[in-house]
Amino acid sequence: MDYDVLLEGCCEMGVQLLRYGAEIHRAEDTIHRLLAAYGLEGEVFAIPNCLIVSIVDPEGKAHTRMRRVPLSSIDVDGIERFNALSRQLCADPPADPGEILERCRGARDAVKPFPLGAQLFGYCYGAAFFALFFSGGPLEALAGGFAGLAAGVCVILMARLRANFFISTMVSGFVLALTAWLPLAAGLPVNIDSAVAGAIMVLVPGLVFTNFMSNLLTGDIIAGLSTFVRAVLTAVAIALGTGMAVLLCRALWNVSEHGGQAVGYAPPLYCLFAFIACLGFCPAYNVRTWAAALCCVGGALGWMVYLLAQAWMGNVFLSSLLAAVVVAVYAQIMARVRRCPATSYLVISMFPLVPGLTIYQAMDYGIRGETGLFWDTFFRTFGIAGCLAIGLLLVSTAVRVIHHWRVRRAP
Question: 0.90 cut: is pTM over it?
Answer without folding.
Answer: no
